[in-house]
Write a structure and sequence with these properties.
single chain; alpha+beta; 8-stranded mixed barrel; 6-stranded antiparallel sheet; 48% helix; extended
């Protein structure tokens, strides 16, 4: 019975429940307060006890030390007088003197005023302090004073009792006031309940008396107003029923006219109706069926059950997958709203489905685009920060996080100036200017230089731009800042400025600074009667020093030479390094040419002195070319070129010499250079061609392969042979570039023939300058990798016998490791010995055409050719004869044992597109001739062989 009354009391409103909450709060507050009070009082009691013990020790210890240590009775009397002097706070005293038994005094027990349980709760440990002082004989007496814990417990207990009385009075006052409020609330609720019951029983004229508290009067007014309105509504109910019938008919028509599928169900889950759009979607002609039959296309129909549909409609993820019969699956969003009856009670639910399939696809595409943008921002090296119009950071990429010191979680939502801290102007000002500017389609925003303060305090020099993020309407919605770290560039600016004018190895002027000094010297010399000498110096045999001692020693030697040059170039003179082992010395204010020659000879003597580097003594000399101004009245570039030309002439004259510029020699060099330049231009313009000359087996008629021969399709002179190209080339770089082009074109043609199932070997001539380059093997390997269809064994490199005279075995072995084969071209025209033939790893020897031409009428040529064939057979080498022009040449070579040949008598060089047709015709002719028993008739008469 009491439990029922308690539950009824709780149902009277919020105030009874609040009463219980207040009780719980009071209990919790009192418990916390007294726990803190007891702790503080306990600490204060301990502090007071410690102070009291210190006072006792400071008073007793001097007295005890002043006594005779042997007089123990006096010490005992002093200890026994403690209660009379210091009160009952001391529980025990212990006096210890080395060499004597300790004296101890203990106070009689005193009954505590506090209850025993309180003492157990406090559990105060008796405070103890020790005091020591030395006697005159050096011993130290120790006094141990222990306080009585009962005195401490009583002090805490008294304070707690006083506070408990005050707290009890406060709690009683609070509960008394709450009880009065509850009783007033109960009377109001009882009156409201009685009036409501009479109204429910049909007494529509029931009204509440307006009296009591303000809340009671407000409730009475509200009830009376509601009762009056309900009474008037009842009278108009019959009229309203007719209007409702018409309204229902109109509502039905309205729902059927909606394009969205809509259903109606009652509060108990019974389906009442569905519009035509719903029936068309689910092909359901009977919408009145209860249960889940209304959703034949849902993958999870339970989601629209009355128990879960409300939660689904109110959640953010209110999507369901619908696959109506015979249709594709669609993603639809579910919405519902309750409808009420005339009395305001929920009568059921109106639900609808909205097709969002296209919107989901657009959202997914937008998310993919956003992911790509985030990946792009994370992968670039520049820092990127975006903000809203308020200046709060929205995104920050990884590069920006590294440069600011803030992670994305720390930075997002913070003000821009708090994260992107600049030394001078705040970044928010630049962002404000960017978002406030007018839209310009092609506006160029220059980068601003600033110092970024890292979170750790470090500073970075940056350049950044601030641009507005604009919507489609052009209105700014935020700002994007893009910045990069230019600290290293700032630090290197001075070095760059220095390196822009000086050589990095020697510290001398570089080419650019030399041009400025030379231009100024020409201007000054042109207005004075003196001469200017431009001296080009090149160290003799410097490459040999590099090869013998290494590049490090070579660099040290260059530094020593630079120091001597710098010491020689005093006053207005200047020394510079152009690169490698080439130096330039400007001698100003020279009186005549003999004075120039004297100065140069002095310099050559100084440079020829030994160089002590580490533990080695190196010797080198210099070749010097001199151009004199104004005798050679030219511009600075021409003057340098003339000095370089004179230096080359000094080297050709035997090195360690000085040579003055010669005008006639300069004209010859210019002509050679212009022709070489024209060849290089022809290569770049695509004027070079490759022609192919077949190599055949004279006995079997088999086409063994082709030799790739260079031709120049000159736009004015027509097709030119290699004799118009190769003699003009002296620049190693141009020679190497042309050689690589030939290799690349030959490999590309071999790949085309491979695709046509023709596996020929192709020979390519390699110039000595190209073959001797250190990166030749690496470049050849790269070219072979570009044509994986071509077997490296089908590529044969032809090198001249004169080039092979140098010990290039390691280079040839490196190429052969790639699968490439070698042939010695024009064999017999050089000075090779049998030892070279033995050591060189070439697979093929090519007999020079000058010997092959004379085998029919010159016994010496015949003997030489026979000897070469015999040597090739002895050293297990293939041999091929060049320059076969007639059938008689072929028959003679077969008689000597040479079966492989090429020449105009077999076929002239031809373009690649004619090779296959010639091969078919040649093989057909050979078959016919074989049938006629003419073994050597594959050679046909032709014109004499021109240069290849």
């Amino acid at each position: 019975m009491r439990a029922e009354k308690f539950r009824a009391w709780l149902t009277q409103g919020t105030i009874p429940r609040l009463y219980l909450a207040i009780l719980v709060i009071i209990v919790a507050v009192v418990a916390v307060r007294y726990q803190q009070l007891v702790s503080l009082e306990e600490e204060e009691a301990n502090d007071r006890a410690v102070a009291e013990l210190a006072r006792v020790g400071d008073s007793l210890l001097p007295t005890l030390v002043a006594l005779d240590p042997a007089n123990r009775e006096s010490a005992a009397r002093v200890l026994q007088t403690t209660p009379t002097r210091f009160g009952p706070a001391v529980q025990s005293l212990l006096w210890q003197v080395p060499g004597q038994a300790p004296l101890q005094w203990t106070a009689p027990p005193v009954a505590m005023q506090a209850p025993a349980w309180f003492a157990q709760v406090l559990d105060i440990t008796p405070p103890t302090q020790r005091f020591g002082q030395a006697f005159a004989d050096g011993r130290t007496g120790v006094l141990t004073v222990t306080a009585d814990p009962g005195i401490l417990v009583d002090r805490v207990w008294k304070t707690v009792v006083v506070q408990a009385r005050i707290s009890a009075l406060n709690i009683f006052t609070i509960l008394f006031l709450l009880t009065l409020i509850l009783r007033a609330n109960a009377r109001m609720l009882r009156r409201l309940t009685e009036a409501t019951d009479r109204f429910r029983q049909g007494h529509l004229d029931t009204r509440m008396d307006i009296k009591g508290t303000l809340e009671s009067r407000a409730v009475a007014n509200t009830f009376n107003d509601m009762a009056g309105k309900v009474q008037s509504l009842v009278h108009s109910l019959r009229e309203t029923q007719q209007l409702q019938s018409e309204q229902l008919h109109f509502t039905r028509q309205l729902i059927d006219a909606l394009p969205l599928p809509v259903f109606v169900r009652e509060a108990d889950g019974t389906f009442v109706d569905a519009n035509r759009a719903w029936q068309r979607l689910f092909q359901n002609g009977d919408p009145g069926l209860p249960g889940q039959g209304m959703f034949p296309g849902l993958t999870a129909p339970h989601l629209l059950s009355p128990a879960q549909s409300r939660q689904l409609a109110m959640s953010q993820d209110n999507e369901v997958l619908v696959q109506p019969p015979g249709q594709l699956a669609r993603t639809m969003a579910y919405y519902e709203a309750p409808f009420t009856s005339t009395n305001g009670a929920v009568a059921g639910t109106v639900g609808t489905l909205v097709d969002i399939t296209e919107r989901k696809r657009a959202e997914q595409a937008l998310r993919n685009e956003k992911d790509r943008a985030e990946v792009t921002l994370a992968s670039i090296g520049d820092g990127v920060i975006t903000t809203d119009l308020a200046g709060c950071i929205e995104t920050i990429n990884e590069a920006a996080q590294l440069m600011t010191g803030y992670t994305a979680d720390q930075a997002v939502g913070e003000l821009l100036d708090d994260v992107f801290r600049l030394y001078e102007e705040p970044a928010s000002q630049a962002a404000g200017r960017a978002t406030g500017e007018q839209v310009h389609a092609n506006a160029h925003r220059p980068a601003m230089q600033e110092v970024l303060l890292h979170r750790s305090g470090e500073r970075y020099a940056i350049e950044y731009t601030a641009s507005a993020i604009r919507q489609g309407s052009g209105r700014a919605s935020g700002c994007v800042l893009v910045f990069r770290d230019v600290t290293e560039a700032s630090h290197l600016r001075h070095q760059i400025s220095w390196h822009a004018r000086h050589d990095g190895l020697t510290g001398l002027l570089n080419r650019a600074a030399l041009a400025e000094r030379l231009t100024h010297a020409l201007f000054v010399t042109g207005r004075s009667p003196t001469l200017l000498a431009v001296c080009m110096l090149d160290l003799d045999h410097f490459q040999a020093i590099n090869d013998a001692h290494g590049h490090r020693m070579g660099d040290r030697l260059l530094k020593e030479v630079a120091q001597r040059l710098n010491a020689f170039a005093t006053g207005s003179n200047a020394a510079a390094r152009l690169g490698g082992d080439e130096f330039v010395l400007l001698l100003n204010h020279q009186t005549d040419v003999p004075a120039i020659e004297e100065h140069v000879h002095q310099l050559m003597q100084q440079l020829a002195a030994p160089y002590a580097i580490d533990d080695r003594l190196l010797h080198t000399t210099a070749s010097v070319g001199v151009a004199v101004f104004p005798q050679d009245d030219v511009n600075p570039d021409t003057l340098l070129r003339q000095a370089d030309q004179a230096m080359c002439q000094a080297k050709r004259s035997g090195r360690n010499r000085m040579h003055l510029f010669d005008v006639q020699l300069d004209h010859a060099v210019q002509t050679q250079h212009s022709q070489q330049t024209r060849v290089a231009q022809g290569l770049q313009a695509g004027e070079m061609r490759l022609y192919y000359q077949p190599k055949v087996n004279l006995r079997t008629g088999e086409v063994l392969g082709m030799e790739a021969l260079l031709r120049w399709q000159h736009p004015e002179q027509g097709l030119l042979g290699p004799q118009h190209v190769l003699p003009l080339l002296e620049d190693v770089e141009v020679v190497a570039e042309l050689g690589e082009w030939v290799l690349k074109e030959a490999l590309a043609q071999m790949r085309q023939w491979s695709l046509a199932d023709v596996q020929w070997e192709v020979s390519v001539n390699i110039a000595a300058q190209h073959f001797h380059r250190p990166d030749f093997v690496d470049r050849l390997k790269d070219l072979l990798l570009t044509c994986p269809e071509v077997s490296p064994a089908r590529l044969e490199l032809e090198i001249l016998e004169s080039a092979a005279l140098q010990d290039m075995r390691s280079m040839m072995h490196s190429c052969q490791a790639l699968g490439v084969r070698f042939a010695l071209d024009d064999f017999g025209t050089g000075f090779s010995s049998l030892s070279y033939l033995k050591r060189l790893p070439a697979e093929t020897i090519k007999i020079d055409q000058s010997f092959v031409h004379g085998i029919l009428h010159d016994e010496d040529d015949l003997t030489l050719v026979n000897a070469i064939i015999t040597l090739a057979r002895a050293f297990n080498r293939h041999v091929i004869a060049e320059g076969v022009e007639t059938q008689a040449h072929g028959e003679k070579l077969l008689a000597l044992g040479c079966e492989r040949a090429q020449g105009f008598g077999i076929a002239p060089p031809m373009p690649a597109h004619e090779v296959l047709a010639w091969t078919r015709a040649y093989e057909q002719r050979h078959l016919q001739q074989t049938a006629a028993a003419r073994p050597a008739s594959m050679v046909t008469p032709s014109t004499p062989t021109p240069a290849r």
